[in-house]
Amino acid sequence: MLRRVRRLVLMVVPAFAFVSACKNDVSIESDVLAGSYAATSFLVTQSGQPTVDVIAKGGSLLITIAADSTTTGLLSLPAGVLSPQGGTASMAGRVHQRADGTFRFDQTGEETFIEALIWQQFTGALVSTTFLSNTQFQITLRK
After folding, report:
1. pLDDT tens-digit profile of 11-61?
2. pTM of the full structure
3. How many structural domains are present in the chain?
4. Is residue 11 included in any domain, yes or no?
5. Domain membership flag for residue 81
């Protein structure tokens, strides 16, 4: 019985050493930023006012980020959200990664609050919870 255990150990230990010496091909990489995103949650709370669900009121935010960080898309706000009249704005521009790992959008030809928001990247999503002036923005964009 002792011989069997010794043989087993002599066979298993070299095999384990061989396997552990092999290169590990599994790696964890950060999520790819490029892709098409749509707002699945878009809440706006102005000081002293109830929270407004922009999507429930018919608004939307669609952004496509290309591999070269250029962006396209459309912001659509219904009347009564941030202004008495509704409106749309192009999301054409670029997305920039900041030194702290967060992101900002830079729109060309349009100026909206989206440019001032700070975004964090999660698996398959960009999320912003930003307070600007007297307004809290909570937006989740999902691929």
Report:
1. 444 444 444 444 444 433 456 899 999 999 999 999 999 999 999 999 999
2. 0.77
3. 1
4. no
5. yes
- Domain presence at residue 72: yes
The CATH code of the domain that includes 106 is 2.40.128
Summarize pLDDT for 68-127 with one digit per residue, the tens. 999 999 999 999 888 889 999 999 999 999 999 999 999 998 889 999 999 999 999 999
HEC sequence for the chain:
CHHHHHHHHHHHHHHHHHHHHCCCCCCCCCCCCCEEEEEEEEEEEECCCCCEECCCCCCEEEEEECCCCEEEEEEEECCCCCCCCCEEEECCEEEEECCCCCEEEEECCCCCHHHHCCEEEECCEEEEEEEECCEEEEEEEEC
- Residue whose tokens read 């009564």: 80
Residue 98 falls within a domain, yes or no?
yes
Q: Is the dihedral of CA 118, 122, 124, 130 positive or negative?
A: negative
Look up tokens 């002792």; give the residue.
2
Task: Print the domain residue range for 72.
Answer: 35-142
| pLDDT at 7 > cutoff 90 | no
